[in-house]
């Protein structure tokens, strides 16, 4: 039997990390967007062997345990200790790892949902398990709870599923442009000096967004956050300015990856495509994902 | 401009009411199912008149303010006081009012989402507004937060959106059979002597379901709850027993309406249809609604 789980990619627009010794109480405040592309996890469970084996593969390539620590930790917790057989967890990512699309959380949450569907449990327990191992292994702080909420989201109270609180913005007809250019280490940024600026600017942005909760405002605040923290500068900032010439809401930086994103009105899609093709940078145009993550038997 | 919101019908399987002076802290514990049919709210906003007018219609028929107290209360709060124009709220219900399908909450939440989409706000504020007026006017305690969660849900912490907590069960391939036979006044049941039995049996059922969180277990516990509280008896209980002869999970009573519901495996749908047609009772077979309520511009 093959189980499939889908978890949307999640882009953070701005954020305030909230660390805590209890990983379920750690999380982030901020805002972001869930995308119609993301992470697909396929789970295959076969009995009949004498031992309990768990295998993980990224994009079709088996990876070692220490290259998939979060997924293995989730699986160790959710596959019963007395189970004997082969558990294969195949994760496919629509965007590259480390580029700020929440792949780590997508893999963790998709794995937790698929395993719980197969071995028992509930959505909340699965989601909390994914969040805990994300936090413990510094995969991320707010992606899991944001992915569960869908849509354009505001994390108004920090914490994992069941503790944190996520609100959603109303919006109309926006497509999401993403320009994924490279990696940025979440861990290095959070351990660096920029963290103070992130906390100050992120808190201000959240307060302003809650006073005027609209996606247009979110993009203005995201861009201010990105520039004022110094995370968006140099060539990436120049690229954002080029892009802004043909769209009505400011583009901003993917937190945290070397890349940009923007909300496009339908009539702006062509112009944005043209300028990015001219500049020869990779890009994609996707929808906002409005629902909850999906899990079920795969009969593809 | 026409805005449409859809909110799934919600059937409660068993429950424990939790009253509180603060309506946002009032709510219920329990479990239930969200359906692919429910309440559609169409909102039309026209400016150009000199006064602020709010009109509500049920199934195409305009209703007076005192027949739609909850919807009017929600609208009074969410339509800005300085707005001048005509606000028309057209609510269409797939199931009859008062039969235990959460129509009251569906109308309140659909109205709140459509008005917030149109006039500004966030999902959480809209949902809290709907919940507050539901509680104040005794429309219901747990429907709004259950409808926001979708799927087969367990209310594990009582309270409105942002305060209460809802978990979801994993399940495969179930259809939902509903047999709507008549009204039952939530208010009369909650004000009566049966409330003590409801609290005792509902708490036990929740504890047992959390120990074995599966939809099959939920139906067994729902039936025990319905019989032990004395709410399910007489002809309705006889009908449930007839139905049980052709399906594998026990049917149970819609809380609170004069009606039954059951989870059907795909191969059981025909047998259930046949027996109910023979018995000449009204019924419908629908899907579990997995997503979040929907709101957007209507271009039907």
Molecular structure report:
The structure is a homodimer of 300-residue chains. In chain A, 35% of the residues lie in helices and 31% in strands. The first copy, chain A, has 9 helices and 12 strands. In chain A, strands 1, 2, 3, 4, 5, 6, 7 and 12 form an 8-stranded mixed beta sheet that branches. A 4-stranded antiparallel beta sheet of chain A has the order 9-10-8-11. In chain A, a hairpin with a 2-residue loop joins β3 and β4. In chain A, α1 packs parallel to α2. The first copy, chain A, is globular. The first copy, chain A, starts with a strand and ends with a strand. The mean pLDDT of chain A is 96. At the A-B interface, α3, β7 and β12 of A face α3, β7 and β12 of B.
